[in-house]
Amino acid sequence: MSFPDLTPDLRTHMPDLRGRLTANQPLAPYTWFRAGGPAQLLFNPADEADLAYFLKNLPDDIAVTTIGLGSNMIVRDGGVAGVVIRLGGKAFGEISVEEGARIRAGACMPDVKVARAAADAGIAGLAFFRGIPGSIGGALRMNAGAHGGETKDVLVEARGVDRAGNIKIFTHADMGFQYRFSAAPADVIFTQALFQGHPGIPLDILAEMDRITATREAAQPIKEKTGGSTFKNPPGEKAWALIDKAGCRGLVVGDAQVSQMHCNFLINRGQASAADIEALGEEVRRRVKDTSGVTLDWEIKRIGCA
């Protein structure tokens, strides 16, 4: 499908904009599922000031959606109306080591690179980021965690830009972290974060990261087209165990399949549509509800229209 082109009007309305605007940009290449429709307009800001200028001058009736590395996301086949913002480049991808065993990282920096930078600097406590297939912006938004650690355990503060173009700082308390959730305002686009670790021995930290890598490779279909963990663990339960009990391991809808290796992962076997993937997830939810009486909540974010 194709949306009306917003670019000419926005360029006229924002003469000092430095970032890149692309009309009807396919989003499938930006997602790990490699499925889904286009963005009506994709905006790649030049830096934080450019992002703030864009948001301040963007008409209120144009919707804004933010994406990161696309590892925990389904973009529906009808695409995403309005503006999709994707951070990238040096302005949002820098990492710096600060005094007191702290790491500052841009929001588009992959979690694994933050873990590696901390290890190289002899900063322990951030190795769990090695097991999270996403970027720092996404980790802040959903309190991402793995292998016994969560973003809330190490965050000092986050920085972002709200829908009105205001740059804001959020303390740990401001983030309102819960399991796979942050209470930070939904309209904020995070641009960087400051993390607190503690002194450690680089070789020991790297060994811990290697153990995390080996565990993931042995138990998760990380080489497939997948979105990572599909459903949140219900209180006192494991989502994968409920899915397995419901007989969903290997279940197929279209060209989407529940992973045989880890049944809380959905995979695109090659030509799955976003509709196939989402329908498979909903069928899993239905069967788990029928079998165990438990309602699984999506962990994967779903955006756009069918």
Structure description:
There is one protein chain. This protein has 306 residues and is of the alpha+beta class. It has three domains: 83 residues, Uridine Diphospho-n-acetylenolpyruvylglucosamine Reductase, domain 2, CATH 3.30.43; 114 residues, 2-Layer Sandwich (Uridine Diphospho-n-acetylenolpyruvylglucosamine Reductase, domain 3); 83 residues, UDP-N-acetylenolpyruvoylglucosamine reductase, C-terminal domain (Uridine Diphospho-n-acetylenolpyruvylglucosamine Reductase, domain 1, Alpha-Beta Complex), CATH 3.90.78. It is 27% helix and 27% strand. The protein has eight helices and 19 strands. The chain has a five-stranded antiparallel sheet with strand order 6-7-13-11-12. Strand 6 and strand 7 form a beta hairpin. Helix 3 packs antiparallel against helix 6. The longest helix is centred in the last third of the chain and has 19 residues. The model has no long low-confidence stretch (mean pLDDT 96).
Estimated helix fraction: 25-40%
**How many strands, what sense, and barrel or not for the largest sheet?**
5 strands, antiparallel
Strand order across the biggest sheet?
6-7-13-11-12
Structural class of the secondary elements?
alpha+beta
Secondary structure tally, helices: 8
The unreliable regions are none
Distance between the termini: 11 Å
Task: Give the overall shape, derived from the CA principal axes.
Answer: globular
The tally of structural domains comes to 3
**CATH class wording of the largest domain:** Alpha Beta
In the CATH scheme, what's the topology name of the largest domain?
A: Uridine Diphospho-n-acetylenolpyruvylglucosamine Reductase, domain 3
Which architecture name of the largest domain does CATH use?
Answer: 2-Layer Sandwich
